[in-house]
Amino acid sequence: MIEITGLKKRFGQQEILKGIDLTIEEGEVIALIGRSGCGKSTLLRCINFLEEYHAGTISMDGVELWYRCDKNGNRVRRSTAEIAACRQLMGVVFQQFNLFPHMTALQNVCLGPRYSQKVKPDLAESIGRKVLTDVGLAEKVDAYPNYLSGGQQQRVAIARALAMRAKVLLLDEITSALDPQLVGEVEDVIRNLTHEGITMILVTHSMSLAREVSHRIAFIDDGLICEIGTPEQVLDRPSSPKLNEFLSI
User: What is the pTM (predicted TM-score) of this model?
Assistant: First the structure.
């Protein structure tokens, strides 16, 4: 479904991603692990083109996203309209909830379908109520963010991404800003989503969550995928010294 080849990204003279190769199948859940600053979140942001990258390709269903080749073979950024259309294929949930405080949970969730996808208000509301029910917030549709816990706000953010009916869900350390007692309710939502066959790429520091929900885990170190395999292979039988050291911390 998603194929990443030779992806490189730098900030100034510092190269963050040094040639990432990764293929993700439809319905697969991939967990990205590694030390802070290793390039996990940068990779996720490149996949959604929130960060432009300097080399490599990202394709979905055989079609290259974000860039194309012109008639002379030069790499050219796609148009703003093309990029906006491609972004709608991906739902993104960040550490921070980024909800509009003056809108209810339902209004926050319906915003994308109504204005980005031109979905009619009644259908957008129906979609919004369903996804809020799916994340356990059926009784909070009319609540404003300030009256929701951090865990509930993050679940609204997940529902907002689901409402866009994206082909892949990108989750960037979505529990790291939560109090420990609220982490479990958000992780439960992710566990439930794995039963829906949704393709997900999950950046996490939780080895227990990575083990439980992912089909494969990719260990990133110094801008490269150093090891990738099933949770049992990566977490129980690491083959690289760097991964073994990381897991022992």
Answer: 0.91
